[in-house]
Amino acid sequence: MMDSTNFNSIFAEYKKVVGQFKLPGIDVGALLESRRKDVEAIVEANTTALAGVQSLAQKQSEILRTTLTEVQSLVSRVAQSGGQPAANTGEVVQQALNKALVDMQELADTAYRAQADSVAVVTKRVAEHVEELKTLLQPKK
């Protein structure tokens, strides 16, 4: 990922080059600056998506750890009872599976929110860009 210092120096160089050209009725510097905001929006969307992926990985780990702990507990109880299945073994397994399903639903909800947040960032920037282009392309008085 590009750090902000490199990003700013590259943009400064682009502005210098573009600033040499004059196009009647178009503020080239403002047009280039609007592109900066587009790139910043994409970086923000990527950051949001990365946070979502990290959250998903953490939740997967929690689901796995919880389910394995419950299964380990069940196996331990069965072993302690002399190897014979406990009367409520089926119920415990069902509860563990139900918990895993609930956790998986939470995982799906987290993924949806992360995607929705990323799309919202880009959608907002597209709307801003359209308005900026309308302003830039209007004849100057």
TrEMBL record:
Residues 33-126 form the Phasin domain. It comes from the Bacteria. This is Phasin domain-containing protein. It comes from Paraburkholderia sediminicola.
